[in-house]
Specification:
The chain is of the alpha+beta class. The chain folds into 3 domains: 5-108, Nucleoside Triphosphate Pyrophosphohydrolase, CATH 3.90.79; 119-213, Phosphorylase Kinase, domain 1 (2-Layer Sandwich), CATH 3.30.200; 227-434, Aminoglycoside 3'-phosphotransferase, Chain: A, domain 2 (Alpha-Beta Complex), CATH 3.90.1200. Helices cover 41% and strands 18% of the residues. It is built from 13 helices and 18 strands. The strands form 5 sheets. Strands 9, 10, 11, 12, 13 and 14 form a 6-stranded antiparallel beta sheet that branches. This is Phosphotransferase. Pfam families: APH (PF01636). InterPro entries: Aminoglycoside_PTrfase, Kinase-like_dom_sf.
Length: 436
């Protein structure tokens, strides 16, 4: 991933000034957020304006500095030692350029700038009205304002506290970008097919790619339940949606089976948007892997295991605990693919989160738990040849996913996930070399 150092530019409501603090030499500089991965709440806290909202996609300069531009809710100053200054009075010219570009785009509106709707001034009131209407229909009463927990080029997520027949709770709103416009429709089909394995769906607007969901323990406090339980839930999703694959495809889940993977692998190796980030040596080494990668895809495709619904990015952060046990959420990358790809990704997540020295055992536990439901009908689920091939193909699959995302992003936002494809190709190069 590309390095990043975040600064925050709070625009005055009149868009003619920006909030600044004293720099090391006494000039005007933007406040800095120490976290390399701040969420929307961190950015707002740095401004001192609780009503501030991101007004533009963040921009990254060549030195790794990321400028996050927010629109202020009032002319008051809530940060100690800060002051309003003209944009041209900022110490760093790069920051001034990013802020001026955002001001121009804010004046044009999000769509005029080619940005997702949530960067537009009228988006939030429309969301608040829609959420309130759905809550009223369900007998839920909001007990506080909605809080933006995440907002970037791919999605926006808000949390709204409510109370109802079962007492106080939070409801979660999510909007997705054009690339993932079908996530609400796919989630709705899943809610019909496996209602106990996905978050409760309280409302959807497929035209605007909006959905409102019940809370899931683990979204905010990172307690998703045991990896083995999540693996069993994954196996149930895969098996119990087999009869509903046509409905999932009709809702927008693409077919990412072997044929699609082989075709798109060629794009990653020969025409990736991240090729400029690679050295000539890296590019050459990655392209030399093509026969081995194709062979791995074909070996896995010949396993006799049917393609199933695939989550597409199943790590432990995308699982939690609902009223009846483990649930899986964030079906942004949902598609049809080989069933071992998701469990391979989950096993890697479990291994990464295990105590020192416990990674191999954690991954093995995930594999074993997932195989329980598959083994009676498909004993080849235990074949080590397919498990090893899935480890290679899962990396290929993930690189293709990020290629899709990068191509769907405005160029100004590609830095957010920049370097991921390069990192994956480097891992494949090392994996191939280790085979001897």
């Amino acid at each position: 991933m590309l390095s990043r150092r975040h600064e925050v530019a709070l625009l005055h409501p009149d868009l003619d000034r920006v909030l600044a603090v004293d720099g090391k030499r006494g000039g005007a500089t933007l406040p800095v957020v120490p976290d390399e991965w701040p969420d929307h709440r961190d950015l707002v806290a740095a401004t001192g304006d609780p009503g501030a909202v991101l007004a533009a996609p963040a921009e990254r300069r060549a030195d790794g500095t990321v400028t996050n531009v927010l629109r202020g809710s009032s002319a008051g100053i809530g940060r100690v030692g800060a002051r309003w200054v003209a944009v041209d009075d900022l110490d760093h010219a790069g920051a001034a350029v990013a802020v001026r570009r955002a001001v121009t785009a804010v004046a044009e509106g999000a769509r005029g700038a080619g940005w997702p709707d949530w960067f537009g001034a009228g988006w939030r009131p429309a969301v608040d009205d829609w959420v309130a209407g759905n809550c009223a229909d369900l007998g839920l009463t909001p007990t506080g304002p909605a809080e933006i927990t995440k907002m970037w080029g791919l999605s926006a997520v808000l949390r709204r506290p409510v109370t109802g027949p079962r007492g106080p709770a939070d409801v979660w709103f999510k909007a997705t970008c054009a690339r993932f416009h079908d996530e609400p429709a796919i989630t709705a089909v899943l809610h019909e097919l496996v209602p106990d394995l996905v978050p409760g769906l309280l409302g959807i607007d497929t035209d605007r790619a909006w959905m409102l969901m019940e809370p899931v323990v683990g979204i905010d406090d990172e307690q998703p339940g045991t990896p083995a339980a999540v693996a069993r839930a994954l196996a149930r999703v895969q098996r119990e949606t087999l009869a509903g694959l046509a409905a999932l495809q009709a809702a927008g889940a693409p077919d990412r089976g072997a044929a699609s993977t082989i075709e798109e692998l060629r794009t990653v190796l020969h025409d990736s948007v991240e090729l400029p980030l690679m050295t000539a040596q890296q590019r050459g080494a990655a392209r030399e892997l093509e026969p081995w990668l194709m062979e791995s895809v074909q070996l896995l495709a010949g396993s006799g295991l049917p393609d199933t619904l695939s989550h597409g990015d199943l790590h432990l952060g995308n699982a939690g605990t609902g009223s009846g046990g483990p649930v899986i959420f964030d079906w942004t990358d949902a598609c049809l693919a080989h069933p071992l790809l998701d469990v391979r990704h989950l096993a890697a997540s479990a291994a990464a989160g295990a105590p020192a020295g416990g990674g191999e055992a954690a991954a093995a536990a995930v594999r074993a738990a997932h195989a329980e439901l598959w083994r009676p009908d498909f004993p080849q689920i235990d074949d080590d040849r397919y498990w090893e091939a899935a480890g290679v193909v899962e990396l290929v699959f993930t690189a293709i996913s990020y290629e899709h995302i990068q191509r769907a992003q405005p160029e100004v936002s590609r830095w957010e996930l920049g370097g991921v494809i390069v990192d994956i190709l480097d891992r494949l190069i090392r994996l191939h070399a280790a085979r001897g």
